[in-house]
Specification:
Length: 227
């Protein structure tokens, strides 16, 4: 009987995929990085909406759109981003972009790509549900910051970078309110559920994918571990 592959969930920030225009350089590097591990690991990649989603949501707000409608707009953008990521992995990827994280995926493919599901939470929350329903203990959150900080480094020059943080402290940092387009290291609702499930979340700056490879190779890496 073949040895069971380690499965890892990656919550891929939409602003890495399309910070304005589509970042083809990042996407090629991301594919190259993951391709080294196909055959020995399985990746569930949940793709966010990022800056593009927030741009559309802001436009909707100008026309008086309710929170629910703005959330649906963000979900639509995640599906677009996810379709791009899915096509990129060609024959190694599950044939559909998954949108319901509660459905257990049965496949021998090494990459499964997902998008947003329904209003009220982000793809971070979907990533936690994927981990729960596939009995996965580690989520890698690829974002555009080097570390989690004890407060917003854009507002507080004395903000301290955290290499390790427990869930209780992290929840204190991010608060407990979700709103469409919220830009946080890991969304508050996702954090609460991840804490309850005793998951480990690894925050890594996706602009430096060698750090992702360091983690996957069990080497010291630059980033934050939340557990």
């Amino acid at each position: 009987m073949a040895e069971k592959k380690e499965s890892i969930v990656i919550s891929l920030g939409g602003s890495l995929v399309a910070p304005g225009d589509i970042d083809l350089g990042f996407l090629k590097n991301f594919k190259h990085a993951l391709s080294k591990y196909l055959g020995e690991k399985r990746f569930f990649v949940l793709v966010g909406g990022g800056k593009v989603a927030r741009t559309y949501q802001k436009a909707l707000l100008e026309f008086g759109a309710k929170e629910n409608d703005r959330d649906w707009m963000g979900i639509t953008v995640t599906k677009l981003n996810a379709e791009l990521v899915k096509q990129m992995f060609n024959g190694n990827v599950y044939l559909k972009v998954i949108t319901d994280p509660n459905v257990k995926v049965k496949t021998n493919k090494d990459v499964v790509v997902g998008a947003g599901w329904k209003p009220g939470w982000s793809t971070d929350y979907d990533a936690v549900l994927i981990a729960k329903n596939h009995d996965i203990k580690t989520i890698i959150n690829l974002t555009n910051i080097d570390y989690v900080y004890d407060k917003n480094p854009n507002e507080f020059p004395d903000a301290k970078a955290l290499e390790n943080v427990d869930w209780k402290s992290f929840e204190h940092i991010v608060g407990d309110k979700w709103s469409p387009g919220l830009s946080m290291p890991f969304d508050p609702r996702a954090s609460k559920l991840a804490a309850r499930l005793k998951l480990k979340v690894i925050m890594i700056n996706g602009k430096n994918l060698d750090r992702l490879e360091d983690f996957l190779n069990n080497k010291p890496f630059i980033g934050t571990t939340i557990q």
